[in-house]
Specification:
The protein is α+β, with helices and mostly antiparallel strands. The chain has 2 helices and 4 strands; from the N terminus they run βαβββα. It is elongated, with a radius of gyration of 21 Å. The termini are far apart.
Length: about 120
């Protein structure tokens, strides 16, 4: 069963890019980030921000260490957002946790029972 009867209604190859560049945002990305935020009806993520660009154009951005994220709603960017979030989580774990609460560690050795 074909979902689309007419070729005009099929997704084209440009909808899903083959090459995506992920990098940290630079100060000169401010205008492009503001445009993305306006399209997404959201605020520009703050702090350390990762961006994804396709052919030199920003499609999405994610803040490292927080939930802030924006993307162009007119682009097929769901997969790109997943990649950005995974990379942001990796970078967040790699950063020294100065302001974070210490994580509780659990000993792998079994507890010794008191004798006597």
């Amino acid at each position: 069963m074909r979902l689309f009867r007419n070729r005009r209604h099929t997704l084209n190859a440009l909808a899903a890019p083959d090459q995506v560049t992920m990098r940290r945002a630079y100060p000169d990305d401010a205008a492009a980030l503001a445009r993305l935020a306006a399209l997404d009806c959201s605020r520009v993520p703050t702090g350390d921000v990762l961006v994804a660009e396709v052919d030199g154009e920003l499609w999405a951005a994610v803040a490292v260490g927080s939930d802030g994220a924006i993307a162009d709603p007119f682009r097929a960017s769901a997969g790109i957002m997943r990649l950005l979030r995974m990379r942001a989580a990796q970078l967040d774990l790699a950063t020294p946790a100065v302001d974070r609460e210490p994580r509780r560690t659990r000993s792998l050795a079994p507890r010794r029972q008191p004798t006597g």
